[in-house]
Design a protein that fits this description.
With about 575 residues, this protein is mainly alpha-helical. Helices cover about 60% and strands about 5% of the residues. A 5-stranded mixed sheet has the order 3-4-5-6-7, with helices on both faces. A two-stranded antiparallel sheet has the order 1-2. α4 crosses α10 and α12 crosses α13.
Length: about 575
C-alpha cells in the first residue's frame, strides 16, 4: 500500500530528542580521536587568546568591571559549547550588547543587569523549546548588514573617551548626540600618552593581521601596551587603577534579587537581550555553517544560549551570545567540534587562577584600540556598497536599519528594517503577478495529444478571432492580497462581455483568502450575466481555498486543463436556445 506525501513528511520529521541533542553528543558518537582532541586544544587556546582582551574590553565598555566579562566568557562559553546545536559556536560577551547593557546598568544597577540576564535566559529557553528559532532565518540581508554597521558605530563612539584619554565631568551619556557633545567639552583633557598607546595598539593589530595573520595580534598588542605602560610609567588609566585588578577565582553562584517589582522593572531589558541574543547567536551559527558546510540545530542552539545566560547570571556575568568573530577564529584554527569551545573557557579560567595580577597593568586605551578594530571589521563595506547599488528598496532598508540602530534603539532598528523589507517583498511579489487575457477560436487542433496540457494563450486580435465568445484569463504568480486589486481590475476591464470565461490557475502556486474572495466576487458578477465560468489547473491547496470561499458549483466548473474547458464552453454555448427574434 502506498503512503501519502503527508505521512511520508511526518515520518521524516526529526523527533524531539533529535532536535535538541547537543552537537557535542553528535561529535562523540561519530568517533572522537586523539588527533581531534589535539586540533581542538590548538583551536581552543587560539580563541581564548582572542577572547581574553575582548571579554574585558566589552565589559568595560558596557559599564561593568572586566572580571564580569571574563565570568561571562568562562561560564557562558562553556555552557554554549556543552549544550549547543552548533559544532563551532563560541559564546561570550558581544559588542552588540554594549549599549543595552550600559543602559540597563545606568537605570537598574548591576544587580538589575544580572537579573535581566537571568530572565533573558529563561525567555531563550522558551523560544528554543517552542521551536521558534527557525523564524530567525527570515531576517533579511539588508537588515543584518545595516544593523552590524550601526553596532560598529555605537561601539566606536563608546571608545572615543579612552582612545583619547579624555576625562568627563560626569557620567558618559548614552545617546550618541549627547555623548559627542560631552566628549567635545572634554577635549581639553586630551591625554597624548593614552592616544599614542591606542594608536600603537591599532597599528600592531592591523600589521600582524596583514603580515603575520597566524599570530594572536590582539593579545600581542595588548601585552606590548601593558609592558610599555609598566616600563615607562605612563600616566594612563589601567585596569588596576580603574577597577583594582580582577579576582583570582570565580565567585560562588548566587541568585540575584528577584522581587516582583524588580522583575517588572528589568523585563523590557530581558526581552531585548533575548531577541538580540537569538538573532546574534543564530547569525553566528549560520556563518560557521557557511565556512564548514555543516548545519546547526537552531532551536537546540537557543536552548543552550538560554542555559548559558542563566549560568552566567548565577556567577555574576551578563548577556551571553554566539560571537561571530570568535566563532570564525575557531573554525579557521582547525577546530573539530564543541570540545574546542569548552577548552577555550577552561583556558580563560586558568588565566584568572594563575595570571590575574598581570591584568592590572593593561591600559584602557589599549582595550579601546582593540574595540576600535573590532568595530571597523564589523562593517561589511563591500556588502554596504553592493546593497546601495542593488536597488532603491534595499538601500532604504539598509539606511533605515542603520540610522535607527545608531540614533534610536537596536531592537527598533531591527523591527523597522524587517517591516520595511516585508513591505518591499510584498510589493515586488504583487508586481510579479500577471494576468493574460485572450479570445480563443473554437477550433482545437486534432493532432494535440490528450496528455498535453500546454495551451498557450494567443494575443487577442478582433480581426482574426473567429469566436470571441470565450475568453481565457491566465493568472501567474503567487496570488495574494497584494495582487488582488490588480487582478480584479484586469478581469473587470475585459472590453467585451463574453458568454464564457476560463480562468487558468496552473501557474498559481499559492492563493490566500483575499485573492479567493476577489475571484468569488468576479464569478458571481459573471454568473449573474449568464456567463459560463470554468477554472482550470488549480492545485489541491488553491482549489480548497476557492471552495471554502464559495467558488463552487453551480457558479463555476473545475476542469483539468484549458483545452477541455474551452471545448465544454463552446458546447454549452451551442446547446443554449437561441434568443427570440425581435418583432
Amino acid at each position: 500500500m502506498s503512503r501519502s506525501p503527508t505521512a511520508t513528511r511526518a515520518s521524516n520529521a526529526p523527533t524531539f530528542v533529535e532536535l535538541f541533542t547537543p552537537k557535542l553528543i553528535t561529535v562523540l558518537r561519530e568517533g572522537y580521536t586523539f588527533a581531534h582532541f589535539k586540533a581542538d586544544v590548538v583551536a581552543g587556546l587560539t580563541v581564548a587568546i582572542v577572547a581574553l582582551p575582548l571579554s574585558m574590553a566589552i565589559a568595560i565598555a558596557s559599564g561593568v568591571g572586566p572580571d564580569r566579562g571574563l565570568y561571562t566568557a568562562i561560564v557562558g562559553g562553556f555552557l554554549v559549547s556543552l549544550l549547543g546545536g552548533s559544532r563551532f559556536q563560541i559564546g561570550g560577551p558581544a559588542g552588540a550588547f554594549i549599549v543595552l547593557v550600559a543602559t540597563t546598568v545606568s537605570t537598574q544597577g548591576v544587580d538589575g543587569l544580572i537579573l535581566a540576564t537571568l530572565l533573558s535566559g529563561v525567555l531563550l529557553l522558551l523560544i528554543g523549546f517552542l521551536q521558534l528559532g527557525t523564524f530567525i532565518k527570515y531576517i533579511p540581508y539588508p537588515v543584518t548588514v545595516g544593523f552590524s554597521a550601526g553596532i560598529a558605530v555605537i561601539i566606536f563612539s563608546s571608545q572615543i573617551k579612552d582612545l583619547f584619554g579624555l576625562t568627563l565631568s560626569g557620567p558618559e551619556p548614552g545617546p550618541i548626540f549627547e555623548k559627542l557633545a560631552a566628549l567635545a567639552d572634554a577635549l581639553p583633557t586630551f591625554n597624548l600618552a593614552a592616544f599614542m598607546l591606542a594608536a600603537a595598539t591599532i597599528v600592531v593589530i592591523i600589521g600582524l593581521r596583514e603580515y603575520r595573520p597566524r599570530l594572536p595580534g590582539l593579545l600581542i598588542a595588548v601585552t606590548l601596551a601593558a609592558l610599555a605602560t609598566f616600563a615607562l610609567d605612563l600616566p594612563v588609566e589601567t585596569i588596576g587603577t580603574k577597577f583594582g585588578g580582577i579576582p583570582q577565582s570565580l565567585p560562588a553562584p548566587r541568585l540575584p534579587d528577584m522581587s516582583f517589582e524588580k522583575v517588572i522593572a528589568v523585563l523590557p531589558a530581558a526581552v531585548s537581550f533575548a531577541l538580540l541574543g537569538s538573532i546574534e547567536s543564530l547569525l553566528s551559527a549560520v556563518v560557521a555553517d557557511s565556512m564548514t558546510g555543516r548545519r546547526h540545530r537552531s532551536n537546540c542552539e537557543l536552548v543552550a544560549q538560554g542555559a548559558a545566560n542563566i549560568g552566567s547570571a548565577l556567577f555574576g556575568g551578563f548577556c551571553v551570545t554566539g560571537t561571530i568573530a570568535r566563532t570564525a577564529t575557531n573554525v579557521r584554527s582547525g577546530a573539530h567540534g564543541p570540545v574546542a569551545g569548552i577548552l577555550h573557557s577552561l583556558f580563560l579560567l586558568l588565566f584568572i587562577l594563575i595570571a590575574a595580577p598581570l591584568a592590572s597593568y593593561i591600559p584602557l586605551a589599549a582595550l579601546a584600540g582593540v574595540l576600535a578594530t573590532v568595530a571597523w571589521n564589523m562593517v561589511e563595506k563591500h556588502a554596504v556598497a553592493t546593497l546601495l547599488r542593488a536597488s532603491r528598496g534595499d538601500a532604504v532598508v539598509l539606511a533605515a536599519t542603520f540610522l535607527l540602530t545608531v540614533f534610536r534603539d537596536l531592537i527598533e532598528g531591527i523591527v523597522v528594517g524587517f517591516t520595511l523589507s516585508a513591505l518591499l517583498f510584498l510589493h515586488r511579489m504583487a508586481q510579479s503577478v500577471e494576468v493574460e487575457n485572450a479570445a480563443l477560436t473554437p477550433h482545437i487542433p486534432s493532432d494535440t495529444s490528450d496528455t498535453d496540457e500546454r495551451d498557450p494563450l494567443l494575443p487577442y486580435d478582433a480581426a482574426e478571432a473567429s469566436d470571441p465568445d470565450v475568453v481565457v484569463s491566465r493568472i501567474s504568480g503567487a496570488f495574494f492580497f497584494g495582487a488582488a486589486a490588480t487582478v480584479a481590475t484586469t478581469l473587470d476591464q475585459i472590453a467585451r462581455q463574453p458568454k464564457a470565461y476560463v480562468i487558468d490557475f496552473s501557474a498559481v502556486p499559492f492563493l490566500d483568502s483575499t485573492a479567493a474572495a476577489t475571484i468569488e466576487g468576479f464569478v458571481r458578477k459573471a454568473h449573474a450575466r449568464g456567463a459560463i465560468i470554468s477554472i482550470t489547473g488549480a492545485r489541491p491547496g488553491v482549489r480548497r481555498t476557492l471552495l471554502l470561499h464559495g467558488v463552487r458549483h453551480p457558479l463555476v466548473h473545475f476542469k483539468a486543463n484549458v483545452r477541455d474547458a474551452v471545448n465544454d464552453a463552446h458546447a454549452a454555448i451551442r446547446s443554449r436556445p437561441a434568443a427570440p427574434a425581435a418583432t
